[in-house]
Amino acid sequence: MDDKGVLIASLSTVFIAFSIVVASVATKIVHPFVLALLAYILSIVFLFVLAKAVGEKFQFRQLLRDFRRPLAEVVIFRCVLGQLILLVGFSLTIAMRAIFMLRFEPVFVLIYSAILLRERVTARKIILIIVLLLGGFLFITDLSTDIAQNVMLGDLLVILALVFLAYSYLPSAKISKKINPTTLTITSNIIAAIIIAPIIGLVLPITMMVPDMTGLTYILVYAILFYVFGVFLWFKALASVKPWVVASVLALEPIAGALLAFFWLGQWITAIQIVGAAIMIAATYLIAKYK
């Protein structure tokens, strides 16, 4: 396994985890569709300027010529359906529940990999993912919250979003082996923004389209954390690491999110949560070393 790729996936986890905490707050004051659209637009600008500053070459022509179908799948399943449904789900549930639901992503990715990529599903893979989910359950619930009680609509939407997001790992991995992550992120975000903009115009009143300064601040932070760094590094990791392994590394998001919650919200973690975190780290390490 590519240790550098796993490290990149781990860095992606930190930024995505922080973005989830921000999004769970932002979607309560900004419509999820508006959050997605403005975050796409801001990320396009940031990535384009950064790429120009470091002299990175774009591969737009090669991407649009050689990867039309996988690019369309990335845009539809990750950038439009997955992202919009996920943000709506965040707006209808609480952050801790949403973070726990996101732990099921490696399961869906492994299923898709087995069916579509003929990835061999061994007993060890299944056991490692079960252990990972167990650690996530302990960390999120502290054995004091019944996740199954009073299931919210937002919870179901988050799970539905994961079905789409998990599939996007496959075409993303295919493209990332030939196309740099900056080109892929900018292109997919541009196309997604073009699709989402008219939808917003049709379903939202004008008063909901323009967020206040607080909302704009959250959108800016979310765009930087999620798209400029999180998704960029995610695409880069998929260039050298198997999709189900990347998804499993991202399962460490609750731990990174807890650090932000501690410094930003002053929330402490318990001994049981520390045990859960240790289990998740151990399981993720074994997954990352899986041949």
Which consecutive residue ranges, at least 5 long each, have pLDDT under 50?
Answer: 147-151
Number of strands: 0
Mean pLDDT: 82
Tell me the distance between the termini.
6 Å
Shape: globular
Helix share, percent = over 70%
Q: What is the radius of gyration computed over CA atoms, rounded to a whole number of angstroms? A: 18 Å
Tally of distinct domains? 1
Q: Give the biggest beta sheet.
A: none
Derived structural class:
mainly alpha
Describe this structure in words.
The N and C termini lie close together (6 Å). The protein has 14 helices and no strands. It has one domain (3-288). It is globular, with a radius of gyration of 18 Å. By secondary structure, it is mostly helical.
Write the layout of secondary structure elements.
Elements: H1 3-26, H2 32-54, H3 60-66, H4 68-91, H5 95-101, H6 105-116, H7 123-141, H8 153-176, H9 181-203, H10 206-209, H11 213-238, H12 243-249, H13 253-265, H14 271-288
